[in-house]
Sequence to fold (143 residues):
Amino acid sequence: MLSKQIPLGIYEKALPAGECWLERLQLAKTLGFDFVEMSVDETDERLSRLDWSREQRLALVNAIVETGVRVPSMCLSAHRRFPLGSEDDAVRAQGLEIMRKAIQFAQDVGIRVIQLAGYDVYYQEANNETRRRFRDGLKESVE
Fold:
């Protein structure tokens, strides 16, 4: 470790898959990390976290308290599949709903930073309209 004055974290995907959050945070602590960044990517498994029950959210909070390992940030890359800049209104609406749920989830479990990718669309060709829709989606998300 460099110094305990500088907190050191690890990205969730760098840890073994399949562990519950208590085990994941215990492992991070054993490895000397101070925090873990959560991933909410485009897979159904990770997207489903945004629909966790109150009890599931509390289990994460309790794991944080028990281990002392924080989860201060979320990498929200689900917008690759549901881009805010999509020209398909239904896909864009799903992207906005994902953003709404991510903000609520973050508030519930104490995540302070939601990291977004800065691309308007990922699997299709970008254009002026997709860029405009992306900017508008960001504005809608923070209102």
User: Anything to note?
Assistant: The first strand starts at residue 9 and ends at 11. Helices lie at 21-30, 44-47, 54-67, 89-109, 128-141. The mean pLDDT is 95. The two ends are 41 Å apart (CA to CA).
